[in-house]
Structure formats: C-alpha cells, structure tokens
C-alpha cells in the first residue's frame, strides 16, 4: 500500500469510528430499539464507573497539588543538590498580536519566581505580520525587563517561509533555531538548559522553576523526559463567563487526573523540556496546529520510545476564554476546543511512525494507539450518548409493540437512577473547582461564590456544545481532506 493511501485511511478512521457509532445507534433505535436500550444502560453504567475512577484520581492529584505548592523548592535544592547552579532556564514566549498588558503580566510573573533571575534566558518570539505592534511592545518590555534577566532577546518570524503552516509551531521552530546561536554565544552547555515553552499569557507559580530544576536534577535520565505541570485557567476566572469557566475546569480536571497516570501523559499547552532534546528533534514541528503535544511524539520516536513525561503538580496559570460579549465568548470557546481536538492529526502520524520504528515494542505501540483512539472516540461521542441519543430508542420503543416490555417500562427508572449517581460527578467537580480557585477579587460580591457553585448545572450543555461538537468537527475535517483541514487559530486575550 502506498504511503499516501495509508495516510488517508488513517486520517479517515477516527471520524468513521465516531460517525458509525452515532449513526448506527440512530438507525438501530428504529430497527432494534431494545438492542440500543441495552447498550445505553451498559454505556451509562460504564461511564458511571469511569466517573468514580476519575474522581479518585482527581482527589489524589489534588492532594499532591496541595502538598507540593507548600514546599520551598529553592531551599530544598540548596540543601540537597548543589548542582542547581549550573542550570539555566530558557523561556520562549511565542506571540502573535497579543496586547502589551498580556505580555507584561507574563514577564512580571517570571520576575516573582524564587529561582535566581540571573539564570534566565527569556525569548520573546514575534511574527512579521504583527511586526509594528510587536516592536512597539518590545521597546517597552525591553526597557522594563532587560536588566532583570541574564538574557532577554527577541526574534521576528518571517511570514510565508517554505514548508510552514501559519501558526505558533512555525514561530517557535524559527525562534528555537535562532536561540541556538544565542545559547552558544553565552557558552552554556545544552544539557544545562531547560526550555519552558509557554503561551504568551502563561503565569508560572513562584516555585515553578525551582520545582522544575529539582525534578530535572533528581529524575533518572532527565534528558529523555518532558516535564508537564498542572495547568489551570485562573488568570481571569472570576471575570470570564460561566460557560467558559465550566469548560475550562473540565480541561483542568482532566489534566490533573492525568498527572497521577504518567504512563499515559503527553505534553499539553505550556510545558518544559531539556533544551538538548529539542535540539535533537529539530525543535517544534512547523507545519502542524498542535505542536505542543506533537513535540512529545517527536521525542518519543526520535529516541525509539525512550522518552517519557514527568508530572509536575506546581502549576502554571493561563487565561480563560473571555470576549466583550457572551456570544463572542462562546464562539471563541468553540474554536479553541476545536483547535485542541485537532490533536486528532497525531493519529495518522503515529501510525506511520510505528512502521518506521520497529525497535519500539508492540505493547508500547498498542497502549499509545489505544489511549489516542479511546480519547478521540469518547470525546466526540460520550456526551451525545449520555444526554441525547440515549432517549431516542426509549421513545421509539414506547410507540411500538415493545412498549409493554418490562425492559422498556423499567429503563427510564434505571437511567434516572444512573444519571442521579452520575450527578455526583458534577458535585465533585463543583467542590474541586472551589478548591483550586484563586482568591476572590474584592470588586466581586460574596454572592459570586454561589454563582461558582450553581454554574455546574451547565455541565451537560457544555459537554455537548463545547466537547462533542468541536471534537466531531475536527475529526470530520481531517477525514474530508486537506481542503477542510484546520489552520492555527489564536485565542484572543484581553485584560479587564
């Protein structure tokens, strides 16, 4: 089979799997409604077990989170590992039109960390198509921060370079390649540099870099590891709309639950990596949308499977989706979730790379592929099965001769019981959301706490509209071919 034919089959597979399940359940609801009723009961029971398991993982992750943010990691470094002085932190911040206020708060957060600032190489990576705004921002930022860090420099990524997709990955790839000359001139060994690849709105916890350094110096074979922090969307959580808050918390909880299962983890959004590994793999891929998670796969295949993710419970915080109107916020949220769901582009990439790397065990390949397939499928289908399609076979069965069936008569009560138990998942989410919230701004009334609790009644709605729909959208676009593929969409950021 030709490589291109195999690639197209693999691009079509995720959407085919999801649409076959959804359309098949609709057709069977009319042909064999009892079959679908059995399936719905089993599926809801399976999902209830998953919610219970997820809640347990989230609890242990939260315990680790609370414990680790209380530790003075800089003191721990000084007491236990004198080697920390050789480590430098290279922070790259790709930017594409973000306002000065966003970049200023990000850089200011770096100055508040507890790791010595004379060990920081900070890189602001701008785009030529926003050159006037970027250079104006740079002049003000350079004046304010150039004396605070060991090195503060900028690059401007030329527009339209061959082989590139217009997006963050292309900017980061160009900036990363340019950074080698800077680091070489400074005379620092690549093995002594840890790169933190941050979104332009990322604000790191004050002990993030000391914790990262500790992990790097105490982890076995640290050059073959990526370092993934807990990610919270807290920068503007009190100001953003309820629908975007609930969706953001869903992402936060999923990421936190993954931290206690490092064997499943891949990099996502803001993360850190050994600079040596980045040089080895050729930096971030410049022709894809989801470069932040692809970089893990680049390392995984470059080292024939000898590349893992180390979880970090010390968090980084980013902006939640917020726009001038509720409608615009909803549109931006949908586009953001669809961009994240475009991680489905990794599926054909993995399938091809598996053939090129026979040294990686079949079991490891199977686990990686299973996790990817399961994640894509349930992201696109589970909310629809639980909240919408599960009612269709009951309605059809009630109109036909099956209406007298004991199963048909009892199923509504069974489903109601299962859904009632599943509501404990919403309760758990509400509790944990309060535990990870930053302090309430004084400008907000105390009644705002009630909003933060009752907003969770929106969860079924957000799971369908901002979960299943954008995932189906992304998978379908991949299946339809290059004409329908997504480009990189930058989530607009603002400061109130």
TrEMBL record:
<feature type="transmembrane region" description="Helical">
    <location>
        <begin position="376"/>
        <end position="397"/>
    </location>
</feature>
<feature type="transmembrane region" description="Helical">
    <location>
        <begin position="449"/>
        <end position="472"/>
    </location>
</feature>
<feature type="transmembrane region" description="Helical">
    <location>
        <begin position="417"/>
        <end position="437"/>
    </location>
</feature>
<keyword id="KW-0472">Membrane</keyword>
<feature type="transmembrane region" description="Helical">
    <location>
        <begin position="37"/>
        <end position="60"/>
    </location>
</feature>
<keyword id="KW-1133">Transmembrane helix</keyword>
<protein>
    <recommendedName>
        <fullName>Glycosyltransferase 2-like domain-containing protein</fullName>
    </recommendedName>
</protein>
<dbReference type="Pfam" id="PF13632">
    <property type="entry name" value="Glyco_trans_2_3"/>
</dbReference>
<feature type="domain" description="Glycosyltransferase 2-like">
    <location>
        <begin position="198"/>
        <end position="393"/>
    </location>
</feature>
<dbReference type="InterPro" id="IPR001173">
    <property type="entry name" value="Glyco_trans_2-like"/>
</dbReference>
<keyword id="KW-0812">Transmembrane</keyword>
<feature type="transmembrane region" description="Helical">
    <location>
        <begin position="12"/>
        <end position="31"/>
    </location>
</feature>
<dbReference type="InterPro" id="IPR029044">
    <property type="entry name" value="Nucleotide-diphossugar_trans"/>
</dbReference>
């Amino acid at each position: 089979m030709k490589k291109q034919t195999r690639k197209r089959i693999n691009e079509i597979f995720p959407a085919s799997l999801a649409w076959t399940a959804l359309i098949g359940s609709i057709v069977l609801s009319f042909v064999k409604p009892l079959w679908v009723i059995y399936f719905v009961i089993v599926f809801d029971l399976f999902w209830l077990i998953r919610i219970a398991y997820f809640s347990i993982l989230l609890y242990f992750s939260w315990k680790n989170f609370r414990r680790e943010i209380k530790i003075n990691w800089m003191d721990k470094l000084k007491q236990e590992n004198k080697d920390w002085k050789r480590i430098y932190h290279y922070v790259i911040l790709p930017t594409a039109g973000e306002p000065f206020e966003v970049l200023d708060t990000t850089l200011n957060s770096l100055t508040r960390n507890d790791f010595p600032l004379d060990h920081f190489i900070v890189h602001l990576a701008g785009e030529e198509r926003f050159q006037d705004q970027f250079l104006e921002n740079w002049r003000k930022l350079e004046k304010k921060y150039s004396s605070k860090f060991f090195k503060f420099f900028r690059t401007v990524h030329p527009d339209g370079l061959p082989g590139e997709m217009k997006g963050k990955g292309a900017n980061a790839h160009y900036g990363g390649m340019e950074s080698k000359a800077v680091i070489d001139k400074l005379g620092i060994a690549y093995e002594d540099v840890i790169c933190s690849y941050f979104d332009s709105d990322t604000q790191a916890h004050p002990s993030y870099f000391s914790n990262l350094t500790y992990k790097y110096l105490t982890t076995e074979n640290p050059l073959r590891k990526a370092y993934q922090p807990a990610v919270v969307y807290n920068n503007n959580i009190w100001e953003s709309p309820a629908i975007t808050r609930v969706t953001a918390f869903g992402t936060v909880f999923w990421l936190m639950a993954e931290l206690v299962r490092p064997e499943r983890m891949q990099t996502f959004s803001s993360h850190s990596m050994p600079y040596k590994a980045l040089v080895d793999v050729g930096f971030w891929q410049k022709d894809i949308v989801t470069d932040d998670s692809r970089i893990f796969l680049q390392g995984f295949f470059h080292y024939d499977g000898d590349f893992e993710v180390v979880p970090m419970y010390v968090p980084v915080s980013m902006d939640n989706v917020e726009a001038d109107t509720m409608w615009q916020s909803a549109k931006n949220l949908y586009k953001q979730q669809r961009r994240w769901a475009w991680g489905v582009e990794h599926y054909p990439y993995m399938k091809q790379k598996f053939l090129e790397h026979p040294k990686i065990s079949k079991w490891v390949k199977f686990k990686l592929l299973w996790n990817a397939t399961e994640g894509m499928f349930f992201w696109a289908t589970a909310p629809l099965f639980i909240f919408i399609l599960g009612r269709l076979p009951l309605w059809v069965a009630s109109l036909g001769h099956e209406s007298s069936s004991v199963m048909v008569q009892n199923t509504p009560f069974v489903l109601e019981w299962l859904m009632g138990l599943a509501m404990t998942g919403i309760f758990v989410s509400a509790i944990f959301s309060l535990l990870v919230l930053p302090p309430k701004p004084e400008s907000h009334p105390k009644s705002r706490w009630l909003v933060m609790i009752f907003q969770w009644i929106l969860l079924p709605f957000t799971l369908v509209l901002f979960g299943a729909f954008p995932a189906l959208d992304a998978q379908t676009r991949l299946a339809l071919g290059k004409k329908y593929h997504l480009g990189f969409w930058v989530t607009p950021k603002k400061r109130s």
